[in-house]
């Protein structure tokens, strides 16, 4: 295994799982709430794991200038406005999919905004800090390192189960959005999200856009509620629709690249000489 990948995963999981398992020990059956020390630890664990791991690996085991290149990609925001629209619309469609398909099944459209849509945009910075910045590690380091050996598609198929397992402690933590929900549904959803994030990264070379897409997923997901009770058939149809939609996006943008090892130019990083 590529040593950068190995060290990234070891450092990332050690920091994040160390923080989250500590939270589980502190809180036990007490729901996680803002203001608690454990809540801060919960946030820092998710943020620092991927970010610190990516920076350390680039700095210690990478070539000269890799950290600077990573940070440059992280703030690279000068991309076509169409990608900003894409990074907002696709998450919105994914989040309201249960409501749309419930309408098809029952003729009833159930969609509730916990706050006005414009306020959701105002809370986006919280979603960036509380989740979006993970992309510095997942797309900023793990994806390009895997793509040195594998195709983009194979790399995504390696990343998404690792990414899902990384989130696993949250399903045992009362007070998180994951607690009480289906891990398998989230696991499968991450497959589609991983495919779309690869498209954004390859086409824009911008970790910033990946952060934005991820943050919109989280922000819309926390503030938009669909039908609370659905049949097992609806759940299956929803997840199949999401994966199919994301796979179609991936195919449309990447159809000439999925059958062979990625070209180095697609993930080229400008290092200082």
From TrEMBL:
Per the database record, which ranges form the CAAX prenyl protease 2/Lysostaphin resistance protein A-like domain?
119-219
The family database entries (InterPro entries) matched by this protein are listed as: MmRce1-like, Rce1/LyrA-like_dom
Report if keyword RNA-binding is assigned: no
Question: Which keywords appear in this protein's UniProt record, sorted alphabetically?
Answer: Hydrolase, Membrane, Metalloprotease, Protease, Transmembrane, Transmembrane helix
Its BP terms in the Gene Ontology are: CAAX-box protein maturation
Domain of life per record: Bacteria
- What Pfam families does the annotation carry? Rce1-like
From the record, give the transmembrane residue ranges. 7-27, 39-61, 81-105, 117-138, 150-173, 179-200, 207-224, 236-254
Instruction: Give GO terms: molecular function aspect only.
Output: endopeptidase activity; metallopeptidase activity
Listed name of the protein = CPBP family intramembrane metalloprotease
**Native organism:** Lederbergia citri
